[in-house]
Design a protein that fits this description.
Elements: E1 9-11, E2 14-16, H1 22-52, H2 56-84, H3 87-106, H4 110-127, H5 129-140, H6 144-155, H7 158-170, H8 175-197, H9 215-221, H10 223-252, H11 257-275, H12 278-284, H13 287-307, H14 312-341, H15 346-375, H16 378-397
Helix pairs in contact: 1-2, 1-6, 1-7, 1-8, 2-4, 2-5, 2-15, 3-4, 3-8, 5-6, 5-15, 6-11, 6-14, 7-11, 10-11, 10-13, 10-15, 10-16, 11-14, 13-14, 13-16, 14-15, 15-16
């Protein structure tokens, strides 16, 4: 047995390989990928618009287009993951990611800038949480919650590390040079990690649980699946609009770019803290109660950000609390399929369940920037986002799992 397979453990379906290198590698690549491909943009966007003269709506639309591509590509990625595993997909994505950033950095006009972000969206689909979760769910089942928690604890540090780092870099060089430096970091970290650490054999899918009859098509057509997808989509729209809108919200209130970047980064630290609580929450609350509670808490923290303008320390505290909720919501979505329908078609079902949420997340940055003006500013926008989260919590009440599904 190879060194990568020495961590094998027995499960109800036989011995499954738990390659030791996978978990630390995915922790490192999630921090780096999210930090550079996602969280660097809200920090750099004010410098991009100031330097180029392009409107914030245009640049944010390009970023939103990347998230839309990620949503659509994620469905195809899920199918490949179920059958072939994560190595090829994630390695290809980690090559494409740095290339897309170099296109963005060199863009002479909005059209090329837009094209670079479309490439970045494909890289996101192939390297972000969905393929990482599929890998851990298959390799670590039935103890996958622990593995998912560990990798999302690390991923929660992405904004904590890279938002301040990006702000520091852009204080000493142009936004184009900053993206070039970040592209180099992304390539150096993620390409070898995915190519070398994900080589273990891909285990066969376990059988479906007794309550999940009719295959994945029956699940997708069910009312519970549809309502859960709607709840996650509304919640994701609000959550990602808050993440991208936090920096302009604080700038609008007179804080500096560095202060706004630290608020965003410390929110990431809150995500890490929140994820340490998820296993306990999962033991104490059923799947429906857990879903409704976390989405409702997202509404409350968003409303608090809308209402609180000062002092800065209070805003930091609210941002951290919002991060705690976001951290739990990430694990809630990661375990939604297995909690209800098992792991047999995890990649396909998670791709389909996540597609509306990813599409909503894609629209959120552009829609948020577009709505902030007519609404009278970002505080009013955040109030609207809180109402959307409350609606999502109500939809989650109707997404009860099937009998016997937990």
């Amino acid at each position: 047995m190879s060194g990568l397979q020495s961590g094998a453990a027995a499960t109800g379906t036989g011995v499954r390989s738990r390659p030791r290198a996978v978990l630390p590698a995915l922790c490192l690549t999630q921090i780096t990928g999210w930090g550079i491909l996602y969280y660097a943009f809200p920090v750099l966007n004010p410098a991009i618009t100031a330097d180029t003269g392009w409107s914030a709506g245009a640049t944010t639309a390009a970023f939103s287009a990347a998230l839309a591509v990620s949503a659509v590509a994620g469905i195809c990625v899920g199918r490949v993951l179920d059958h072939r595993g994560p190595r090829t997909v994630m390695t290809a994505g980690s090559v494409l990611g740095p290339l897309s950033l170099l296109v963005i950095a060199a863009a002479p006009d909005p059209a090329v800038f837009f094209a670079g972000w479309l490439l970045a969206g494909a890289a996101m689909a192939a390297t972000f949480y969905q393929p990482a979760f599929a890998a851990l769910t298959r390799w670590w089942a039935p103890d996958h919650i622990r593995a998912l928690t560990i990798v999302t604890l690390a991923g929660g540090l992405a904004s904590t590390v890279f938002a301040p780092l990006t702000a520091t870099l852009t204080g000493h060089m142009s936004w184009r040079a900053t993206y070039a430096v970040l592209a180099g970091i992304l390539a150096a970290v993620t390409i070898p990690a995915h190519a070398l650490a994900l080589k273990a054999p891909w285990p066969p899918a376990p059988p479906s649980p007794p309550h999940a009859t009719g295959g994945h098509k029956h699940v997708v057509r069910s009312r519970a699946f549809g309502m859960l997808a709607a709840a996650f989509a509304l919640s994701a729209f609000a959550m990602y609009a808050v993440v991208i809108g936090l920096v302009p919200l604080l700038l609008e209130r007179g804080y500096t770019t560095a202060q706004a970047a630290w608020a965003l980064g410390l929110g990431g630290a809150g995500q890490t803290l929140g994820r340490t609580l998820y296993a306990t929450l999962a033991r104490r609350l059923g799947v429906t109660a857990r879903t409704v509670t976390l989405i409702a808490l997202g509404a409350l923290t968003t409303a608090a950000l809308a209402a609180v303008a000062a002092p800065y320390a209070v805003l930091i505290a609210v941002s951290v609390l919002a991060g705690v909720v976001r951290g739990n919501l990430t694990l809630l979505q990661a375990t939604a399929v297995t909690d209800r329908w098992g792991t047999t078609h995890y990649g396909r079902l998670s791709g389909l369940l996540g597609a509306p949420a990813h599409a909503a997340a894609a629209a959120a940055p552009f829609a948020g920037a577009l709505l902030a003006g007519p609404l009278g500013g970002y505080p009013a926008l955040f109030a609207l986002l809180a109402a959307l989260s409350a609606t999502a919590a109500a939809a989650a009440l109707a997404a009860r799992p099937p009998a016997g599904g937990g």
